[in-house]
Design brief:
- It is built from five helices and 17 strands.
- It is of the alpha+beta class and 347 residues long.
- It binds FE2/S2 (inorganic) cluster and fe (ii) ion.
- The site of fe (ii) ion has 6 residues, from helix 4.
- Keywords: 2Fe-2S, Iron, Iron-sulfur, Metal-binding, Oxidoreductase.
- InterPro entries: Cholesterol_7-desaturase, Rieske_2Fe-2S, Rieske_2Fe-2S_sf.
Length: 347
């Protein structure tokens, strides 16, 4: 690479790497069973598995014997057994057994990488950085909270993560979602920026107001919705995203960047039941029943948003690949802060 093109790529946000010293979300809890699951986080193939005690482990997804994928093997007790010759790796990534080891042979002294991993709030958080993490995963405090109903959508897009974050931080794109009545007339009020996060505060119009228990049906029946002003706050809390619309809605986007042109993410929508004080006096088992039975109430809405956003994001990526030097004309100053944060974190 010439020094000129190197200089260009460092300043090009679409070529940025990620800061590995953070917790990323690599799977939903329910995806990891006693059958190993292969995932990719920023070019690193990782095998996730749940051991016989229910603990989650994450190993580099390659057998040290002949480099085939460990995720194609099976879990035996607390170890991961390779499909090819049956070598077993323990959760530290050390070879623990070879089925055909002769009496005079020692176990090979090979080791593959293992990653710090946590199961928290319905998701698997993995730390791909150096050494032991000194920070905690961001977490989703609403996940187990009885006053919140969750819906989850998966985003798989053929695009650099910066396009996704910019989409999520630029609330002027309500235009794209008009038929879903997501929000309207956003206006950026102010921005706060640190080395760790960007908070952009918009004033917007919301269609939904959850103040009576039946008003949850607004999620299904457009005729019940009325536009009214609400604050719309969006935050890029590196490497994830969070937003609040009025008092009733919260959305998180948990990122798993795969490579420069591919990003996986989980979008989690919470509808709040905080306004229903009568409900909070009912027995916990009943409140849990209400929470669980309403799980996925916003699914259609969320999936509808994702389809349209992904289409735009992928078109941006394609246009970039065809003409990387073409510049955009950006009017939203929140995006300047967002790009600055990405570059600082990735450098
Ligand atoms: S390649 Fe895995 S046991 Fe041989
Ligand atoms: Fe969107």
């Amino acid at each position: 690479m010439s020094s000129l093109s190197q200089a260009v790529s460092i300043h090009d946000v679409r070529q940025l790497g990620i800061n590995l010293n953070h917790w990323y979300v690599v799977a939903r809890s329910q995806e990891v069973t006693n059958k190993p699951l292969g995932v990719t986080l920023w070019h690193q193939a990782i095998a996730l598995y749940r051991d016989s005690e229910g603990q989650i482990h994450a190993l580099e997804d390659r057998c040290p014997h002949r480099q085939v994928k460990l995720s194609h093997g099976q879990v035996i007790g607390n170890e991961l057994e390779c499909a090819y010759h049956g070598w077993r790796l323990n959760h530290h990534g050390e070879c623990a057994a070879v089925p055909y080891l002769a009496e005079n042979q020692k176990l090979p002294n090979c080791k593959i990488r293992h990653y710090p991993v946590k199961e928290q709030d319905g998701f698997i958080w993995l730390f791909p950085g150096d050494g032991e993490p000194s920070i905690e995963p961001m977490g989703l405090p609403e996940w187990d909270h009885l006053n919140y109903i969750a819906s989850v959508a998966i985003i798989n897009c053929q695009a650099h993560y910066s396009y996704l974050i910019e989409n999520l931080m630029d609330m002027y794109h309500g235009h794209l979602h008009q038929d879903l009545q997501a929000w309207a007339q956003a206006e950026l009020q102010d921005i706060e920026e640190t080395d760790e996060r960007v908070d952009a505060h918009y004033q917007a119009q919301s269609y939904y107001k959850i103040d009576k228990i039946w008003s949850i049906s607004q999620l299904f029946f457009p005729a019940l919705r009325r536009l009214h002003p609400e604050p719309l706050d969006v935050s890029y809390i590196y490497p994830h995203w969070m937003s609040t619309l009025g008092k009733d809605f919260k959305i998180y986007c948990l990122l798993c960047p795969i490579n420069e042109t591919q990003t996986k993410a989980y979008l989690i929508h919470f509808t709040s039941l905080n306004a229903f004080w009568r409900l909070h006096k009912l027995p916990v088992w009943f409140r849990r029943f209400v929470k669980d039975s309403l799980f996925g109430a916003a699914q259609k809405f969320l999936d509808g948003l994702v389809v349209k956003d992904v289409q735009m994001i992928e078109e941006e990526q394609q246009a970039y690949l065809q003409n990387p030097q073409r510049r955009n004309y950006e009017l939203n100053r929140a995006l300047v802060s967002v790009q600055r944060l990405m570059k600082n974190q990735a450098s």
